[in-house]
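Please predict the structure of the following assembly.
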Amino acid sequence: MSDTSTIDQPIGGLMEGITDAFNASAVEAVSGGEPAWLANRRTEAWSAYERTPLPTTRLEEWRYTNLRKLLKLDRLGFDGVSLDAAVATGSDAEPFDLAGAPEALRAAMEADHAASGHVVEIDGRIVHVDLDPELASQGVVLTSLRRAVADHPDALDRHLATDALPASRGKFQALNAALWTDGVFLHVPKGVRLELPVRVTRYLTKPGTAFFNRTLILADAASQVSFVDEGLSADFAEQTLFSSAVEVIANDGAQVQYVSLQRMGRGVFHLQQQRTLAGRDSTLDTLNVALGASVARTDLNARLLGPGANSDMLGLCFGEQGQHFDHNTSQDHVAPHAKSDLLYKGALDGNARSVFRGIIKVHKNAQQTDAYQTNRNLLLSEHARADSLPNLEIEADDVKCSHGATVGQLDQEHLFYLMSRGLSRDRAERLVVLGFLGEVLSRLPLGGVVEKVTRIIEERLQHG
Amino acid sequence: MSDTPILSIRDLTAKVADEDVDILKGVDLDLFKGEIHAIMGPNGSGKSTLAKVLAGHPGYEVTGGTVTFHGDDISELEPDERSQAGIFLAFQYPVEIPGVSIANFLRTALQARLEEGEELDLFDFQDELMARMEMLEMDPSFAERPVNDGFSGGEKKRNEILQLAMLRPSLALMDETDSGLDIDALQVVSRGINRLHEENPDMTVLIITHYQRLLNFIKPDKVHVMLNGRIVRSGGADVALELEEGGYEDYRTAEAEAIAEAEAEAQEA
């Protein structure tokens, strides 16, 4: 390719992804009125973004997800300015009018079981927060990130895009850290236990736009909390980018469960970056359920930082025609005597594709590590495809580690067995698929999630 | 006993779907309402193939002959249609289905038998399931365990009888239900079958077995000996005792002589 033909498309990797919507003035606009520490952090993140080339398929982590084909950054709009105006949370907010909300959002919320608190985000802006007053009186903080900038600057200065997901971790981590418009801040003080989950529902209405949100969960020593993060939208004809950065920090002895339930419509490119930091004797479990979007990429890095830390890492995807899922996980054992157990499963119909790349990394001092990784895929059509890349990188010598991956089709003997009891082929297939995926859900049975996901998959299998 | 058999098999030949040689080489058999039959035969005689062919296993292909059930030709029916029509196959090797609980599976199977718009009564279902599990000396917690997942051989076979009890077929094909069972489990399983037959004397039972010992507990009306894809002898319960003493060797010798004779005749012609 000659260099005369690409004047407006910089080559060589530098300055990639700078567009009419994503540029330095967008960063300036979105940080208007923010304290210096935050404005600086955004500017630094932006320069990291500028410096970092767009990942290519030559990188192991992006081998099967070709961003040049799948993501049209230059066609996306970004609307950071108007969000600056309204900070609507807590008691001073306009009461959120659930009756006036889009039907899909309403249905998602009405189906929810009891919760310790709710957050509603529409088009990257938090429109509603409520929290059990009893928990608020015990010091629990659940608020929009924008509001937390004003009310909890010390915690954010210390933890937002620093320990867990700094801009330096990659191109999109940097973009999110530079352009986030809002998000959720949850702080559970020492020893406080939330019986019911915190539920976040995010909804997109604007096609052709990019949305950036962040979530920061701080669980102090011996606290307990579960967090269900559900995202949905209509189907869009124009590509829409939904970027979520999730940082979860569990201090000594804390028990945290984070569940992401991704139900975005077609046309959405979902980019989800998660990092979990598990302290001494903490339990930090995650469940990623990917059902929607056209392209959904999840990076999950679980760091086991304290001895005795324990992370169950669960995931499932169910894909149909035109869907592409990419899960990139790492189990990062820094401290000795910690355990991580990963199980990701995918069922793929039509021409759906999934990629799983997982690495277990055991650092030199992390003796007595238990780390397991399993990825299983079920292809429901001859056009579906699953690629699995399990990996081990072990520097300690006294560890128990295993990894395994399978890709298979529906077992005809299973179907015959069920059909011989009178189930039609369709119903037998549905039962086998639900059983296959249900094994993941049953490991983290948070109130309502199992039923909700089962129902969604069942409906989709019925229509398929 | 009525004059027309509920199951009538005529000159049935069948093979493994992607192979050439027939395993069933002309089977004839009539089962009448409420009868208990046993088919005995050595490994490889085709008796398990017969059970699978009757249930509609997609891995086998019927190459000739007819199978009529309640007067209808069933050879084109899918396995689920045969089940709905009243045929039940208790598997020799029950399949493990991860993530699908027995209760859920049986509920779905029973719901599938109802007319469109009809709903299974879940309370009645639960009551019956618990009663049947008690009859088979199964722990109630089994209901919520995935089908056969991690079950012992005996637990799997009890689970087959549980399904038989819940689905109430008019024809039960018991494929080597006795294999892999210790004497206690064998007694529980055969008591279960006898009990179900007492409750529903119209249920026809076809027991397929290698050994005579199951027939110490379940008394058959007729016993057939299968060898090399054909039924070579049929008679009363005493046939099983003959086998106990003489084994299959006598039949093998007789058959070998018959084949040699036929070949000799063919050469002469």
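Chain B has a mean pLDDT of 91. The helical segments of chain B are 47-55, 79-85, 102-112, 122-135, 153-167, 183-199, 238-246, 249-268.
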